[in-house]
Fold this sequence. Notes:
Low-confidence stretches: 1-36
Mean pLDDT: 89
Helix content: 25-40%
CATH architecture of the largest domain: 3-Layer(aba) Sandwich
Shape: globular
Order of helices and strands: EEEEHHEHEHHEHEHEHHEH
Radius of gyration: 20 Å
Amino acid sequence: MGALAVGRVRLALVPVAALLLLAGTACGERSEPTGALVQSYPVTVQGASDKTVVDAAPKRIVPVGAGPRSILKALGLGRRTVTVDDTLVGLQLVDAIRHAKPDLIVAAGETDPLDVARARSATHAAVYVEPGGSVGNVVQAIGDIGLLTGRAVQARRLTARIEAKRAAVAKAVAGSPLATAFVDTGGFATISSRTLLGDLIALAHGKSVAGTSPEQGPFPVKRLLQLDPDVYLATAGSNRTLAQLRAHAGVRRLRAVRSGRFAVLPADATIAGPQVGEALEQVARILHPE
């Protein structure tokens, strides 16, 4: 993952725990193989929307979103993956997916449901919508996609790594005081604590001060001053810097800004993919530098 840009924060290494080998990861209706076995079909799993059923191993898989792309790559499915320009929306996206002739579409949770429905109708492909609002959801998605594609064993290895890092972080921050944080996605807009990044903060023994349902647009500076978080986080695309905050007449009074407890997260820290374990470690280092 990319390096963190940190203002006066010395990042300590989070201890690495022993790898936890978990027996099951996915919510599919078929048990995961325990060795190098041939996947049997049909397979049914429950994603973020409807159930997904495949009768055979999909040969042409179209990912829509960074999370699905990273999962398919990590599962070694590059040769079966057909990429499209998923920055497109509406009928343009649907047309691009139709031309790819997929038998399985794997879409990120934030993909427009109407686009997903239209793509299903245009291609008659199976569709799996990734649940990505928490680390647990990502673990489920990796397991589900592994089952659908005949890569259940590889999926279990990926999810075991994530679970090991989650356990290591929990052990490292146990007993530390709760660290409050504000996340700036640009122009003082923020995130809900129910998002993947909000879950990473919670698992790292932190609390997103914006809560579960912040309003659209800039978070009120007056309210932010009242909350006075311990740490100020900025997402990679926010273009936020510590110098900007210290030049701002209002927020420069924040404790986090005065002390320099500011960090810019790498671009993939909010992607619902196999790297969430590393993202969790990085968030924990920021919230608990000791």
